[in-house]
Amino acid sequence: MSKKKIAVIGAGMSGLSAAAYLANAGFAVDVYEKHSGPGGRARQFQAAGYTFDMGPSWYWMPDVFERFFHDLGSKVSDWYRLRLLDPGFEVVYAGGETIRVPHDPGDLCRLFEEKEAGAGARLAEYMRLAKFKYERAMERAVYKPGLRVTELMDWRLLSAAVRWQLFSSIRREVRKTFRHPHLVALMEFPVLFLGSMPDRTPALYTLMNYAGLRLGTWYPEGGFGSVAKGIAALAEDKGARIVYGAEVKRIGIAGGRVTGIEVDGGEVAYDGIVAAGDYAHMEAMLLPPAYRNYKAGYWEKKTFAPSCLIFYLGLRKRFDSLSHHTLFFEEDIDGHGAQIYEEPAWPSRPLFYVCRTSASDEAVAPAGHDNLFLLMPLATGLPDPPQMRADYFELMADRIMRRLGEDIRPHIEYKRSYCVRDFIEDYGAFKGNAYGLANTLSQTAIFRPRMRNRKLPNLVYAGQLTVPGPGVPPALISGKIAAGVLAGYFGKKID
Ligand SMILES: Cc1cc2nc3c(=O)[nH]c(=O)nc-3n(C[C@H](O)[C@H](O)[C@H](O)COP(=O)(O)OP(=O)(O)OC[C@H]3O[C@@H](n4cnc5c(N)ncnc54)[C@H](O)[C@@H]3O)c2cc1C
């Protein structure tokens, strides 16, 4: 019998993951990607001798990557090499005080204790619960398609629900445990990965503290682009074909089923489709209104993860006192958060983040040079004229100068900005969001946009806007779940 043919739209992490699983399960898989290389938001570009990761830089949850490769008969080290960062990251606070976060749990407890009497022991206890949540979530909840409530009717899951603190918030749990503002900021910061704020994020997600502080902050040699290339190569190894520079323009429909796609001015027939680009964009651009799961008004009511202002910088000089990851947290997260979620505006007193990939990897910059990535979270939908970008660059450069005691500006030989408009242009991102929907309680699991199209049973969505949520590890999981849902339609199972 000939193989069923599947088209995957988008070679981001979720699309590549879905393609690898489907090809491995015996489907004939073609991936269409509008950009010229793999990774989507996690792709790279080269300029002036530098290699820049466009989006992700924090490699957290290494177990999820390992599980992905293991599922497909492989392992991470077959495709790229990982390095543990220790200290994992640095935080700069008001007044210029900094802390470097060690990987060793004992050292971390000591650091907490130095800041606040008793906080070391409380951290150990807090981490025990965070670990419990992480492990149960991974075992029982995260890999579920979010199609029906009964998925969550597993007694082991239900019995864990109380300890999951679903109806408390990260803010409540952190502030119940720690008082020192530096520790509070350190423990609340992972919510930024979830695209939300500490008071709106269920305390279930303190599991991110376990992910970040215990499982470690890793660096894939060559940058995140190595991960994207590795996953693309694995998908191809399993038989998937990836076509770059190919934007899908329409999904064909007949008899209540999808029948194929329009790409490069031609029609290609398929038995099933995984739409792994931005969900709202996929529906609005590729499907007639009658076949969309959601109307425009639905997306308007959702809480999106922020957009951001990014600068990619090549410096003629190395700044060795700057860590690989530095969080510039001299300002209050709530003030910045209010200007993201409540009264959208360019922030008056922003937090921002700097990644210095060249601290750990000589290959990403010419010898003696530095490769920096500056990121400032920003409300979605804001105008981002060149002057505004430039003003905020000056603000960030001033604060970096305060930290380093030296100005990076005279040493810049390459500079590129990326903001709201670029997210819209490159990904069709709704209002220019950077990484999908926030993981608030009302946007978690079965409450996220559905993976399956309600009217077209052989069309499935994958990616950061559906289950389980934003981030590269969730995107890999999303691809697996979507592959399983589509394979199920054809009577096959993916474990
Ligand atoms: C600035 C930034 C920083 C981040 N930092 C981190 C981090 O440190 N750690 C982490 O884990 N995560 C991070 N993330 C989040 C993470 O990168 C994303 O959640 C994840 O990569 C999303 O993968 P995806 O497959 O859902 O979507 P995408 O990566 O957006 O992939 C979708 C793909 O579909 C393609 N596409 C869209 N429409 C079409 C079409 N019609 N035809 C063909 N192709 C199409 C797009 O070109 C794109 O390549 C960050 C994201 C950003 C933007």
Note down, in words, how this protein is organized.
This protein has 495 residues and is an alpha/beta fold. The protein folds into 3 domains: 5-80 and 222-301 and 435-489, FAD/NAD(P)-binding domain (3-Layer(bba) Sandwich), CATH 3.50.50.60; 105-178 and 186-206, no CATH class; 306-427, Guanine Nucleotide Dissociation Inhibitor, domain 2 (2-Layer Sandwich). The chain is built from 15 helices and 19 strands. It has helices spanning 13-24, 62-71, 105-115, 119-141, 155-164, 170-177, 181-188, 207-213, 224-237, 279-286, 296-301, 333-341, 386-404, 420-427, 472-489, and strands at 5-9, 28-33, 44-47, 50-53, 82-84, 89-93, 98-101, 218-220, 241-244, 248-254, 257-263, 266-269, 272-275, 307-315, 325-329, 352-356, 370-378, 412-418, 459-461. The strands form 5 sheets. A 7-stranded mixed sheet has the order 7-6-15-16-17-14-18, with helices on both faces. A hairpin with a 4-residue loop joins strand 6 and strand 7. Helix 1 packs parallel to helix 15 (472-489). It is globular. The two termini are 23 Å apart. The relative contact order is 0.19. The structure holds flavin-adenine dinucleotide. The site of flavin-adenine dinucleotide has 36 residues, from helix 1, strand 2, strand 14 and helix 15.
Task: Please supply descriptive tags for the structure shown above.
495 residues, alpha/beta, FAD/NAD(P)-binding domain, Guanine Nucleotide Dissociation Inhibitor, domain 2, 3 domains, 20% strand, globular, binds flavin-adenine dinucleotide
